[in-house]
Design goal:
Blueprint (H helix, E strand, L loop, with lengths): L18 E5 L8 E6 L2 E7 L7 E5 L14 E5 L2 E5 L6 E3 L15 E2 L1 E4 L2 E4 L5
Antiparallel strand pairs: 1-10, 2-3, 3-4, 4-8, 5-6, 6-7, 9-10
């Protein structure tokens, strides 16, 4: 993915505006795609036809520190989607990043939005 935004690289402080990450055509349905914004490696998961169609979580596996989450296996249990990390198979809920087998592990969650065939990273709400 080459269509990434780097606005924060030259601006100090916290992200204040939505940032264009990529185009919808860069996404692969029911698979992960890695993107980078400033110092963040983001794994995007596109689930067309689902109630929530786009999720953004950290691409960095909290168990190993490796940038591999976008390459994990997508699964669903009890109506919730999760990603199984490719190295040690920990399962993380896409909705909140929580590891299902180890409460000490959690992926950072990014608020992303698909709008007019573009993927936007929204400013943090906290």
């Amino acid at each position: 993915m080459n269509q990434l935004a780097y606005a924060l690289d030259s601006q100090p402080g916290v992200q204040q505006q939505p940032v264009l990450l990529c185009q919808q055509q860069d996404l692969v349905p029911f698979c992960g795609v890695a993107a980078r914004f400033a110092e963040h490696a983001i794994a995007l998961f596109y689930l067309p036809g689902q109630e929530v169609e786009l999720y953004g979580v950290s691409h960095i596996d909290p168990a190993t520190g490796a940038p591999v989450i976008a390459h994990g296996l997508l699964g669903e249990s009890k109506g919730e989607f999760y990603i199984a990390a490719p190295l040690h198979k920990q399962q993380y809920r896409l909705s909140d990043g929580q590891c299902l087998s180890d409460s000490t592990l959690k992926l950072q969650v990014f608020e992303v939005q698909l709008q007019h065939a573009q993927v936007w990273l929204l400013p943090p709400t906290e």
